[in-house]
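Hi,

I'm pasting everything inline rather than attaching a file, because the server keeps stripping attachments. The sequence lines come first, and each chain or strand is labelled.
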Amino acid sequence: MKNASPKVSLVTWIRSVAVTLQGLILGFTPALPSPLEAPAFAGEVIQLALPWPEMVKAVEYRPQPGWFRSKVKTRLPTAKTRLAAALHTAPDARQIMESVYRQDTSRDATWRAVMETTDKKGTVRRKKFVLRKLGSLGNSKTLVRFTDPAEVRGVGLLSYNLKGAGDRQWLYTPAIQRTRRIAPQERQRRFLGTDFTHEDMAERVLEDFTYRLLGEGDVIDGRRTYKIEARPISPDKSQYKLVHLWVPQDIPYVVQAEMYDQRSQKVRLLRATGLEKVSGIWIARRLEMSSLIEATKTVLLVEEIRFNTGLKEELFTQQALEKADVF
Amino acid sequence: MIAALAFVTFQQWRLHKLRTTLTIFGIALGVAVFFAVRTANLTLLGSLTQTIERLAGKATLQIVAGEAGLPEAVWDTVRDTPGVKIAEPVIEVIAHTAFPDEGNLLVIGVDMLGDSELREYQFEESESEIGDPLLALAQPDSILISRTFADRHHLQEGDHLPLFTSQGRKEFIVRGVFKPAGIGQIFGGQIAIMDLFNAQFVFNRGRNFDRIDLMNEPEVKVEDLQQRLRERLPAGIEVQRPSSRGEGIEKAVSAVTNGFLITSFIALLVGVFIIFNSFSISVNQRWKEIGILRALGVERLNVQRMFLGEAVVMGLLGSLLGVAGGFYLAIGATRAMNSIATSIYGLVSSAELPSFRLDYAIVSFVIGLIASLVAAWLPARAAAQLNPVLALHNIETRQREAVLGWKRLLVGLAMIITGLALIRFAPQRADMWIQFVYAGLLVLGMIVVLPKLSAWIARALRPVMDWAFGSEGVLAIDTMIQSPRRTSATVGALMIGLSFVFSTGAFVNSEKRTIIRTFDRIVNSDLIVTTSRAARSRTYHFSEELGRRIAALPGVKRIENVRFTFVPYNGDTAAIVTLEMEGFFARVSDVLEEGDEPRVRELIPRGEGFIIARNFATRWQMGVGDRLKLQTPTGPLERPVLGIMEDYSSEKGTIFMDRALYKAYWQDSAVDIIDINLQPGVDPAAFKTELQRLLAGEQRAFIYTNQEYKKWLLNLIDGFFVLNYMQMVIAVLVAALGIVNTLIISVSERKREFGVIRAIGGLRNQLRKMVLLEAVAIAIVGMITGVIAGILNTYFLVRTAATIIGGFTLPFEIPVGWILVALPVVVVIAIIAAWLPARRAVNLRVVEAIGYE
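And the predicted assembly:
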């Protein structure tokens, strides 16, 4: 079995688009996978007003392995009350992020989106795609199909992130009717020419970071925010030294993230705008990732989202991947 | 004392500037060729290795399975092997652009999604990415090119690049330009990158890769992973370090490098002869001076030291010049080697300029010095042992006996007979260097018997010279007979040079004749279509579709798709030729040298056995009935050897099998050659024109009629031996220098004789004629001894060297044509070489000449 290289996928990435939808930016990465296992309560929790205490002290949370999962699973019935209470009294960075991770409760999802990449010369490349996802965080299958422009129409990307089986991705190119398995990539490398790196695309979990509440953040799009610092638990496995996250006090969603490299230089900036709730799940309609050094950016515009439409397993097979005419 | 002797030597040099210069030049030439060949060899191998390293990137292991490549399924097995961090397949194709210059372009097919983990790419848009990777993946016409290539053809992103692919001419779109760093430096920057699967598609690789490069997890040892992979993969698939691949390639070009090495040794040998010649002359010329020195009390050892010291100084100067000149000669030799490696072996190397290697320079320098000392040893010893009393009298008469003794003759003959016996009876698979000892015995034996042999030949020539040229002819031949010591070395140099010319000529003739005989019997199709101007291309192939299209044309009776490739065999490689054997048997009668022909004709097309080439049988000690086991990418393939045939396709030895069998085991449908058999009455030339018209601008293919193909094949052989032809020129040039040397000293020694002749009424023209005829006599004796030595060497070459280089045993033949051509050429060269000494003789002032002692 192949090792522990960073979990990567175009799928995941596109899914991050969907991000928007989901509490995408769980943790700090814009492309972080949807909180597929999120309990039903999450959607409600985020609707609660989250008052900002006057005397917020930075709180550092260091989870023990397995702690989070066991806690969540065993205490779900009372979680809502506990979290609400915690936020009212002394906001905890870990709890805020947990709410972000847990807000998406969908079983399946279908997205239609546009991706625009702008290079340093100002040239804009635009691609449209449809993303279908089945399953929950850590146990999902995703199929992305590009629909426009004509040169990439029909290109498909199938991604499995199955429990115990690790990640596997296949890319289908209709021009030569071939499917290839995609190899793991270096984490700092750009993903398919976008401003997202492979690490940004990786499926991270809450426990991969430590969180510290830095205080009240800027007002973004008219919303008061918390500013949280996230540091990877294993610094040698991340290109980032730390990430600053901005989470609205009233919505469990990361609306802004700044990524700092190992030399503490700010290298990337993510902004999520056009927040709205679809089927009880918060999404962002527009997501912009800027590479500050290269002066390039990638914008994801979500055109349509549908949750829980009853997608079948058969749609997520290699045979289905090779049916380029199925959108 | 030493200083005084050095002064004497220096005076000699001053007086004999030309001889000194020629001797130094002789040393320089030998050293230069040696140094150039070694440097060029190193440059070629360095270039190949560097290419391999750059192509391998960070790979610690490579998975290969011969030229036919690996099935795709191997990739999954490798990727899923614990300890493998990255595994990336590669396809390499030397494609041709459809630009007017039809330049070569090395196209590397890699997995664009993962390969940058392994290899260094620097794109211009950003350091590591191309502008739109998804687009490059989605479109099979996507190609990325190096900045060097882009500039050369004024291309930029979005432009079209026309390339000939296995599917015909295709327009590719430049999707990115990478910097001339890392992989961008390979092949002189003539490099492009395509997506792996797109490359498979357009270059007809089926579902195969050329190799898989992989990197181990840091915590796993490379050796452990290598072992683990070997256990998981079929035996026909090799797991090796990139460095071993370099060694493999070194082995593949060993025929070329060995050929060059032999060239350099021969050049050195000829150089040694020049020095020996020059010093013998010098000692002869200075008998009296030596006698005086000895009479004055100079000890024997010091006389010997004087000559050896002279040899050291000359060796130093000659070696210095040789190393300097050799470096420039290496530039040409490197180009020649590169061209052979690319065209014949299909290897990818950058035609780089040689770099100066101090260690090689030192080795060459030392070899030049040692060669000078060795060559001067005998003359110096002779000088030291000189009896001072005799030295002041007629030395030649005294020395003749030693040189012409019977004991010496017997020793020489014994050496020759031993050499011949070893060549005939010793095992053919003995070490290369041991086998060269056989040739050494022949050459040494000839050298030892040379004075006696020369004297006999000269005596036999005397009446002929008398009849043809009168008294001047007699005087010329007598001069030669009376001074065997002076002329033997020159005749020896000529003999060595000419023997090399004759033996090489005979060897090439024998090979050509044999190949043509086989060709006429086996390659009797009306038209032959090939992928390359060279015999084949290692990386560029036709698809079967082309064969189908040709077969459908009116006038075509039948076509055969031929695949010519190399596979690993017993730690080395073997050539495989596959074609539709039924068609082959239909047009070829009498295929076998050994084996039951009707049985072979029945079983081979059914894939139930192999035919092997004679050289394969010799090389691997196999015979009819033995079972031959090949490791293929899909598992072992074992069949009986049903027949042995004469074939010269590869020096590695060839295995013939039915195409269907090959395709099943190697999963490779590529085609290298298409044999076309036409309906009776169809004119091959007209059909060729029609086919050319049909394929023009669409498919890169070379179409030959049978006659044209045969001619092309002969030219190819000539091309392969071009270096040997160059050697011949050098050898003859060196021999000519020997003649100049000898005659200058001859004229110098015979000043008094010439003076007397002039005094008694001899004409200037008669003197000129005498000197020129002496040169002619030397040339003829050199020719005759050269022919004898050449015949002996030919025997060595066709029996032993051919086996060393190609495993072939060629028929022996006497190079009559070469001898007939060489005779007038050598005589003319001798006359030209004698012109200056003759002029000196003519211009002697009678009084001064008579007074000369």
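The radius of gyration of chain B is 32 Å.

If the labels don't parse on your end, tell me and I'll reformat.
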